[in-house]
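User: Run a structure prediction on this.
Assistant: Running it now.
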Amino acid sequence: MNHSNRMRGVGLIDALVALAILSFGLLALTRFQGRMVAQTTEAQSRSAAMLLADELMSTAIVDPANLACYSVPAAGACGSAVARASTDAWAVKTLAAMPGTALATATVAGTRLTVNIGWTGKDSQENRQLTVVTDVQ
């Protein structure tokens, strides 16, 4: 048997090994991309929650006389139907904007407004929560 007959299948084995390595690399890239998409989705949810909390807090800050109207669910005496309607609309919008099972509360204690927004992560199905506190003077 000469040398060329023994070396005939080595090129095919080299190609198969290279193909296996390439397959594992592509699989790793696919999993990495999936994780990046999931993280981006979570970041978008956190950003949306922060914007919604800021919206309610900013509204309350420019209308300190009606601070009691900015609690969710409604608590205490509210002297402004417009402020109450705005707060109720905010709560509906917040619950619709957040993924999964959403929760939106706002409590007033003295001059302090605390906004809590909770949701369930789309991919992780874990509970997430954002709590923001401000003093309204």
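The CA atoms of residues 49 and 99 lie 10 Å apart.
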